[in-house]
Specification:
Blueprint: E1 3-9, E2 14-22, H1 33-41, E3 45-46, E4 51-52, H2 57-63, E5 71-81, E6 88-99, H3 106-114
Antiparallel strand pairs: 1-2, 2-5, 3-4, 5-6
């Protein structure tokens, strides 16, 4: 995901997890040459010394990147779990506008979720 959050809900203690990815569809018209090329690439590939972007840099590293403190279009899923975090109670999907609070490396995000 490009962004996530975890929060406690009310006195019962249920947990909500929000997972967000950049909404590239806001900038890429379906069926356009850019859409066709991105569909063929499928994803951004990360190598040791470089990355091969699915979309041009102005989108992948700019307008579609969920930078801290910037409003960005996103597609989000909101999952509510019981207090143990083991039983999924509900799921909702939405197109959202997201403002990330922090930029974390994967290791840092893992620490936040599992601590």
């Amino acid at each position: 995901p490009d962004g996530f959050y975890v929060r406690a809900l009310g006195p019962i203690g249920n947990i909500e997890i929000g997972v967000h990815i950049a909404d590239v569809a806001h900038f890429v018209k379906e069926g356009s040459p850019l859409d066709v090329e991105a569909s063929q690439r499928g994803t951004t590939v990360y190598l040791i010394d470089r990355r091969l972007d699915m979309l041009p840099g102005v989108l992948s590293s700019g307008l579609c990147s969920l930078h801290s403190g910037c409003d960005r279009f996103a597609v989000s899923v909101f999952c509510e779990y019981d207090p143990s975090g083991r039983k999924l109670l509900s799921t909702q999907y939405a197109r959202t506008v997201l403002r990330n609070s922090y930029t974390l490396a994967y290791e840092e995000a893992h620490t936040v979720v599992f601590s």
